[in-house]
């Protein structure tokens, strides 16, 4: 379907930097620089200096970043990892695939883990807290880090939706032992397909990740591979970021700050225009407390399905991420629980289109459609 206003307009994004993308594509194709080449190294270096995190290892997705992180920690099978049921299934899939057990906490009204719920879930089997910074907004990291310290737990951050976001001026992904990021096209920094990366300050983990992502082989120093790349230390995974994808995100990184500002502008404009309607709108924080990247702009309404359908009929590509808590998906065979706020939020959320290139006219069209819907009610 051709939307009047898509959730994100990828064509516009491409046209903005078309020249750079095409010249990189040409160069890479002619040279055959496809796997673990210059653009990948450049990407890792740039992220490392941007996040002020010593080590960055790019991989094929955030799912893989989570898998590698959990695998590298060597937790005993069936160890418990505290996280949330309001996340993309990938978070829990990674925990399960490594043979660990997700233990789910309820969420707060900011859609992230309710830190007051964590301590009562900690048992002898708990090994880590896995906060998910959802929709471009950081979790409340002071409490999480305090609890982790008190109970000697690792913190693995799922930053898939929040690259560039900060809590008290510190980037998400740099609080815990590792931060896992996604470069999926729908993210605040998106490739033209799958991609992801891990950041850590732990050198041993870093070396493990380098090998894990490449079948257990490959060691490098100052960006150069050493002879010992042919030594295989253990069975690893095949999860490398393509050089072509790295070139795309390297180009897009140049506009990161500008794009985050533009996303914030759209969010502010939505908030100003929708404030008198029967909706719960995302809070706009002081940047010194939370810097949000508005990967999604999520409103809450008692009329979820009605408004969702109305907007789609008007050509606006709205989404519901996600309509059902993960523990209600029978096939996943998760423990039967009932998390009050999680249940409520799933029945009320709608994500409106938000992207840096969005015009004022597009924003006004959506705002007017929403006003019209409530006028008719
Ligand atoms: C919160 C969260 N975690 C993990 C993932 C997995 O990311 P990827 O698609 O890069 O594997 C996603 C993807 O949407 C996500 O939203």
Domain module count: 2
Tell me the number of strands: 14
Overall 3D form = globular
- Which molecules are bound besides the chains? pyridoxal-5'-phosphate
Radius of gyration: 21 Å
CATH topology of the largest domain: Aspartate Aminotransferase, domain 2
Mean pLDDT: 95
Biggest sheet details = 7 strands, mixed
Instruction: Provide the low-confidence segments as ranges.
Output: none
In N-to-C order, the SSE pattern is HHHEHEHEEHEEEEEHEEHHEEHHEH
β-strand amount: 5-15%
The first-level CATH class name of the largest domain = Alpha Beta
Share of helix, binned: 25-40%
The secondary structure category is: alpha/beta
Put simply, the count of helices is 12
CATH superfamily of the largest domain: Type I PLP-dependent aspartate aminotransferase-like (Major domain)
